[in-house]
Amino acid sequence: MSIGRKKTETAEDPITGINITPLVDISLVLVIIFMAAAPFAVIAGIKVLESQAGVATGKVSASDNVTVKLDIHNQITVNNKPVTNQALIGAIGQALLKSKDRMVIVSADDKNKVGQVVSLLDSAKQAGALKVAILKNDSSPAKIKGNSRGNRNRG
Asked: For 31-64, how does the pLDDT look when each residue is reduced to its tens digit (9 = 90+)?
């Protein structure tokens, strides 16, 4: 009689139990691989400066920076000069040569799509901008539609 075997099992009987050791081994190896590869999978984003009160004190004035504007009709201007999409990176690069701190300020309307603004930010980085800021174009304020039930004239 052998130890650890039931009386009905013999040496010639096939092993019918599931061996989960290889499954656990492979799972642990995959976890280690994912942990090692996770820092490399993070995509570097575009850092955008956040405006704060008193930031302009002692800094380069806004007129020394490069301004890229995208209007509601998708017309792009670099320092108030109209530019086509093909010549955008070159125009930003030429304007950056005259800038002291190599900062690009991108401004767009509320109606512009986020992808268009991100494309402008990417073009500014490709042209050699060290800093990027986003502004909202000065346009007429949007009318707020309120609840009209309380505004009726009764008479």
From this structure: 999 999 888 777 666 666 665 555 555 455 556 7
Backbone angles phi, psi at 78, to 5 degrees: -115, 115
Q: Where are the domains of the chain?
A: 62-136
The architecture (CATH level 2) of 62-136 comes to 2-Layer Sandwich (3.30)
Distance CA 104, CA 96 (A): 8
Residue labelled with tokens 């492979």: 26
Type of residue numbered 32: I
Phi, psi of 107 (to 5 degrees): -125, 145
Chain segment 97-132, per-residue pLDDT in tens: 888 888 888 888 888 888 888 888 888 888 888 888
Q: What pTM was estimated for this model as a whole?
A: 0.52
Burial of 71 (C-beta count, 10 Å sphere; 0-12/13-18/19+): middle
Rounded-to-integer distance, Cα 92 and Cα 68, Å = 8
